[in-house]
Amino acid sequence: MATYSESARPEADEANIVRLDDVDRLILRLLQQDARMPNTAIAEAVGIAPSTCLARIRSLRERGVIRGFHADINPAALGRGLQALISVRLHSHARPQLNAFSQYLSSLPAVEGVFFVTGDRDFLLHVAVRDSEALRTLVADTLSVRPEVAGTSTSVIFEYQAPRR
């Protein structure tokens, strides 16, 4: 789950850009398609030895290019078939608590993702809940009552299609 933090903010200078060659890029593309792909299959697909492939993947992790490996769980299979995007605007006096508020949002069981965004809102939340009553409770009784929150706006997700890589 993505959250805002001072240390995780990308910087604009080129010193932080990780240098990747074509083999690294191909390894990353394969892992994006299937993070469970065996090392030997990746090595064969890119034309390098398995030990070299393992070393490259380890290096990509150590350099922060690969942030982790995740299971993509279908929320509906867990009884949370209603998904929504909730934008949250904070009061200006709450700005010093951005990190704490972001951590609070990440701790909520319904929250699938937290994004710190630009514009007239501060956060965009991807949530998955049981039904419309659970969504109403989340917005009205959990988020809107927080002293930091100036307002929310909710959009129900009718359909989601994952990007093809």
Could you walk me through the main structural features you see in this protein, from its secondary elements to its overall organization?
It is a single chain. This protein is an alpha+beta fold. Helices cover 33% and strands 19% of the residues. It has five helices and four strands. The chain has a four-stranded antiparallel β-sheet with strand order 2-3-1-4. A hairpin with a 6-residue loop joins strand 2 and strand 3. Helix 2 crosses helix 3. The longest helix has 13 residues. The two termini are 20 Å apart. 13% of the residues are buried. The N terminus is likely disordered.
Concise description?
The chain is of the alpha+beta class and 165 residues long.
Largest sheet: 4 strands, antiparallel
Order of helices and strands: HHHEHEEHE
Q: Distance N terminus to C terminus? A: 20 Å
Per DSSP E runs of 2 or more residues, the count of β-strands stands at 4
Number of helices: 5
- Rg on CA atoms, Å: 20 Å
Strands of the widest sheet, in order across it, are: 2-3-1-4
Spans of 5+ residues with little confidence (pLDDT < 50)?
Answer: 1-13
Structural class, judged by helices and strands?
Answer: alpha+beta
Molecular shape: elongated
Proportion of residues in β-strands: 15-25%
- Report the helical percentage: 25-40%
Mean pLDDT: 90
